[in-house]
Amino acid sequence: MPTQSDDKRQAAREVIDILHEISTLLNTNLDRTDLSLCVSLIENGVNPDALATIIKDLRREDTAISRTVADHEFAK
Q: Taking the chain, what is the end-to-end CA distance rounded to the nearest angstrom?
């Protein structure tokens, strides 16, 4: 017989599955783990708009670093 914690885990999985479907439709490139971490941060008081801004900034920085590395490798 499923316990209450099993039911909670199953409900959490279903929520993440739905969020992942929405995320895929919106082309956010967030996997289930990323989404789960974001949900946890928001549930613990992190401002969703601030979190979205940080994710965008980190992606921009990653792209810039990748380009710099690629340019450096190309120059060799």
A: 64
